[in-house]
Amino acid sequence: MGKIIVYEHANFQGMSKEFHTNIANLKDADWNDCISSVRVIGHPWVAYQHADYKGQLLVLEEGDHDFVGKKMNDRISSLQVITENLHNPQITLYEHADYQGKSRIIREATNLTRGHDDNTTSSHKVQKGVWLLCEHGDGSGFQYIAREHEHLPNYKAIKFNDKLSFLRPLRVQDTSRQDVLLHMP
To answer: Which CA distances in Å does 88 have to 1, 24, 150, 152, 169?
Structure first.
């Protein structure tokens, strides 16, 4: 699956700790509200502002993140690894609650502000992958993680009705291609 290495200061400075599984409360590991940079190896992770995977979130995909941003700096209280298969993602968006009205299948990052479906979605079904749903076209504002096989019949339950403007599937780096490149003579 991979791991996440957290650092107490920006640019991977100060003390560090490695996690391989979810941690619902970073107080249990003496790391609550003190993370400023991270390294992610393998599957993406989601950092949450509050314990038990609640509050504002930050998606951390594979790579080096030398600063977690002003909104999350020293405010991370739980970490969750994404374990679903992220290949061939697919989500169906519905215009109305309970999967009614016009529907649209999405398979890639899509900025809805550039088309007819901005701020018109009220429910979804995730067929494959994990999706980041965002309130604004630039990926900011309220964010929600939609997981594989999740069926959310009414966005009012998450106070997100008719607010979806941008969505994208989470990705894991394809290491098989890297292996081929590394073993070439």
So the answer is: 18, 29, 16, 20, 9
